[in-house]
Design goal:
InterPro entries: P-loop_NTPase. The protein has 720 residues and is of the alpha/beta class. It is 40% helix and 14% strand. A hairpin with a 2-residue loop joins strand 19 and strand 20.
């Protein structure tokens, strides 16, 4: 429910308006007092009291003497005019009204002039005090750098305090022989300054070579929570081009990151506030009217559920805030196929928009950006990561971008493509400084984790206005609560854009309309849903067929050429070209070798159909058997039956299952099942990701992924 507008009872007027109000009060007293027989001496008394109060206030504020005299004279003039009008009963005559108007104009002009003069004088005093303070700090820093690092020839060009009064920046011109401070400079300077906990030192490059900026935080401004701004002024419609607000830097400047041209990488250990930052980014993207937000979270859709509640449960939003949620491995494959196909369709369908001055689309409400937020990246299978790499590598021109979230930035969690293409990087609180070195390509050696000690604190780097990636800097993320999310979701629902027809004109898009019919029963089980979900679920639910070997949904999307496991066309793996038996779309490398091996043994039937192939043909790809068409009719299946049953059970459960639950489904003992499956996987060199733990919702324990079991099945069949 929208909040009622907040009334502002603050008294915010200019000096000229104040003078006009005093003059208006004097005229009202003169007009009404003449009718009621008010004594003229009372007006004189009020004028005198006003002059005395004005003099006391001016003396307290140390205003110049002639300013005090002028303001007191104005009060006395107003009191004298009112007394004269009361005595003669002439307040409503033209002559008296004319004198009043002239006096009012003079008072307003005088008040404005005095205020300007006082403001100028105040600014001069502040500038003088600031210059004295800056000169003193510059001398101290010149001596400090010389004493700690034995510098010679350096110049402290300026010291600028921050508006937040939480610190200052020192500009230093370094000597040519020593253009940089040593690696331990941050700790030495912080120790020498005896900075409090929460304070810190940050050293960045200046605008020219040989200049460095030393940012000194003297107060702990990141110890308290920063509630995300959610006033009516802070929820107006924005554009994705204005960036996503994440929090504040120590100097109170807002951190905004752009995800129009670049992908983003959010990293943080458990309990660091990473999920909070993801939801803050969600809030920034959903505030716009030109961004479609989608999620992949195969551990229970934890980042999507708070934003879906307003639509799915409360019914305060007519549309889902999150357009698509890949809550299982299978659904995530469908989503990725949909996006990959949409990228290609946008490139071909918007050629006119891509052939102008810029070779990238300009997004708007009718042609929105697609922002895919992927949480718990370590829980995804290699095949799904490969599809995400394709989206990251190919979606920039048509404005399909990705925010990747994980616990670590190491190679075993984040792929090389994701790391290289993510110029926006956010690292939350860490306990090991080496984690920052994995995340930030430059400047990490000079970072001190103690500069971001609390929950919600971290470091970020992003391209600036000149498209230059800045060095990592500390910041404190906004805090967003589920209650605030519900309020924002209700406010942002009516501005959600829709994907254009070109994006939906693909083969995988036929599963897009019925997505919520597949997803909502898994997310909310038997919980009653709001009536607002009926238009999205009261239709035929389409489910793509699963590949018998890999268990991956076959959406009809064209595979990437040369990609792992790519076939000539999903759904028609046996399609052949007319000549030489080479599979359509695959005529190089291993396929050329397979064609040479097959061509002498494959007789051409009357119509050249595959049914005419020799029953003893072996199809090979560089020594790897991929299919064997014939042989003895009683040839046994090389795949252990337990592996096939386990794969089918895990696939039916949504792509992941704990060992105990799998044993229950198969009617076996959990310990015996785990030992037997481990031997089966080890026999073909398949290892479970991580240490074999699978997270389902908030529970993480030993289990299996359908992709792992499918990989083992493929290896057994290829080994025969």
């Amino acid at each position: 429910m929208a909040r009622a507008p907040v009334l502002d009872w603050g008294w915010k007027t200019t000096p000229a308006v104040d003078a006009a109000l005093v003059a208006g009060g004097a005229y009202s007293v003169a007009a009404v007092g003449a009718l009621s027989g008010m004594a003229a001496t009372q007006a004189l008394m009020v004028g005198g009291i006003g002059a005395a109060a004005q003099a006391a206030a001016d003396l307290y504020q140390r205003r110049p003497g002639w300013h005090i005299t002028a303001r007191c004279a104005a009060w006395l003039a107003a009191g004298g005019w009112t007394a004269q009008a009361l005595a003669d009963h002439t307040a409503l005559t033209w002559q008296t009204a004319g004198w009043w108007a002239a006096g009012t104009a003079a008072g307003m002009t005088l008040a404005r002039g005095l205020a300007r003069a006082e403001n100028a004088a105040r600014e001069q005093r502040i500038a003088r005090r600031l210059q004295v303070w800056a000169n003193a700090r510059a001398r101290e820093w010149h001596e400090r750098l010389e004493r700690l690092f034995r510098l010679e020839g350096h110049t402290v060009e300026g010291v600028m305090p921050w508006k937040s009064k939480a610190g200052y920046t020192v500009r230093v011109a370094m000597p040519s022989a020593t253009p940089q401070l040593p690696a331990d400079a941050v700790r030495k300077l912080a120790t020498d300054l005896k900075l409090p906990r929460g304070g810190g030192i940050q050293i960045t490059d200046g605008l020219v070579y040989g200049e460095i900026h030393i940012r000194v935080t003297t107060k702990d401004v990141m110890s308290e929570d920063l509630p995300i701004p959610d006033s009516p002024e802070d929820t107006t419609v924005t554009s994705i081009y204005s960036g996503l607000p994440l929090g504040l830097q120590p100097d109170a400047q807002e951190v905004r990151v752009s995800v129009v041209d670049d992908c983003a990488l959010f990293i943080g250990q458990i309990g660091s506030g990473k999920t909070n930052v993801v939801n803050v980014a969600n809030a920034g993207a959903l505030r716009t009217n030109d961004t479609v937000v989608m999620h992949i979270d195969v551990t229970g859709a934890g980042i999507a559920l708070p934003w879906l509640r307003a639509w799915a449960v409360d019914g305060t939003s007519d549309v889902p805030l999150i357009d698509y949620v890949g809550d299982t491995e299978e659904e995530a494959h469908i989503l990725c196929d949909f996006l990959i196909a949409g990228i290609g369709s946008r490139k071909s369908g918007h050629q006119d928009l891509l052939s102008g001055e810029d070779d990238k689309l300009t997004v708007g409400p009718d042609l929105p950006e697609v922002l895919l937020v992927v949480d718990e990246i370590a829980e995804l299978s290699p095949r799904l990561l490969a599809k995400l790499d394709t989206i990251v590598n190919t979606g920039r021109a048509v404005r399909v971008r990705v925010i990747i979230c994980g616990l670590r930035a190491t190679q075993d969690v984040i792929t090389a493509a994701m790391k290289k293409q993510s110029r926006v990087r956010v690292g939350m609180r860490v306990s090991d400084p080496e984690e920052l070195s994995h995340l930030f390509p430059t400047g990490a050696a000079r970072l001190d984790p103690k500069a971001a000690p609390g929950r919600g604190c971290g470091f970020f780097c992003a391209p600036d206005a000149e498209d230059i990636v800045s060095d990592p800097a500390p910041y404190k993320a906004y805090r967003i609560t589920p209650k605030v999310i519900q309020r924002l979701a209700a406010a942002y629902g009516d501005r959600r854009p829709r994907l254009e027809a070109e994006f939906l004109d693909t083969a995988p898009a036929r599963y897009y309309a019925s997505r919520w019919g597949r997803i909502l029963p898994r997310l909310y089980k038997s919980k009653p849903l709001a009536a607002t979900t009926v238009p999205y679920t009261d239709l035929e639910i389409l489910r793509p067929p699963l590949d018998e070997v890999t268990g991956i949904p076959n959406t009809g999307a064209e595979p990437e050429a040369g990609g792992e496991g790519a076939s000539s066309k999903p759904g028609a793996p046996g399609r052949r070209a007319a000549s030489g038996g080479v599979p359509a779309g695959k005529r190089f490398g291993s396929d050329a070798l397979a064609a040479l091996l097959n061509s002498p043994r494959t007789p051409a039937g009357p119509q050249g159909e595959a049914e005419g192939e020799d029953r003893t043909v072996i199809h090979a790809q560089f020594g790897r058997v991929v299919a064997q068409a014939g042989g003895p009719a009683d040839r046994p299946d090389p795949v252990p039956r337990l592996l096939l049953d386990a794969h089918q059970a895990v696939t039916e459960a949504g792509g992941r299952l704990h060992t105990g639950d799998l044993a229950t489904r198969l009617g076996l003992d959990a310990v015996a099942l785990g030992k037997e499956l481990s031997q089966i996987l080890k026999a073909v060199g398949v290892e479970r990701p991580g240490i074999g733990s699978v997270r389902i919702g908030e529970v993480s324990k030993s289990g299996y992924l359908d992709a792992t079991l499918a990989d083992a099945i493929t290896r057994y069949r290829n080994t025969q």
